[in-house]
């Protein structure tokens, strides 16, 4: 597992595929790297599906789920993005069939729809967690006013 050190590293990873350049029409090079779901108790309210749908609708190239102290939403996030991409691929296939049968006057509109769907297909899930870091020790509180420190950790696979 590799951890991102900078926002530029996240963007360069997302841009590594040529078709990702299409994603920057609506939310130009913007990726939320600190998002809480309903799995962040007392801090998050949004469902995973609502967050993914909104990010894709806004043309974002990715979204990082970073719940407080847990990673319970990651499996749901992964499965939902996979399911969503499957539906987008099916829609692209249907549009390509329509493109072959369409008259010349309608081809430009269908090609625009295909390009929009390919932009949606470029969405990349980013898995993370907002962890708590103690000043000295987990059980030793040096200062009562010290509420701890938060560290956002984002994961990247090696492929």
Verbal overview:
The chain is built from four helices and five strands. By secondary structure, the protein is an alpha/beta fold. Strands 1-5-4-3-2 form a five-stranded mixed beta sheet, covered by helices on one side. Helix 2 (48-57) links the parallel strand 2 and strand 3. Helix 3 runs antiparallel to helix 4. Mean pLDDT is 82; it is low at 17-25.
What characteristics describe this protein?
4 helices, 5 strands, single chain, five-stranded mixed beta sheet, alpha/beta, 40% helix, elongated, 159 residues
Short summary:
The chain is α/β, with parallel strands linked by helices and 159 residues long.
Can you lay out the helices and strands and say which pair or pack?
Blueprint: E1 2-3, H1 7-14, E2 32-35, H2 48-57, E3 62-68, H3 74-101, H4 104-121, E4 124-133, E5 149-156
Parallel strand pairs: 2-3, 3-4
Antiparallel strand pairs: 1-5, 4-5
Average pLDDT over all residues:
82
Lateral strand order in the biggest sheet = 1-5-4-3-2
Count helical runs: 4
The string of secondary-structure elements, in order, is: EHEHEHHEE
Measure the end-to-end span: 10 Å
Low-confidence sequence ranges: 17-25
**Assembly state of the chains shown:** single chain
| Biggest sheet architecture | 5 strands, mixed
**What spatial form do the alpha-carbon principal axes imply?**
elongated
Structural class: alpha/beta
The radius of gyration over CA amounts to 19 Å
The fraction of residues assigned to DSSP E strands is 15-25%
The helix content, as a percent range, equals: 40-55%
Number-wise, the strands total 5
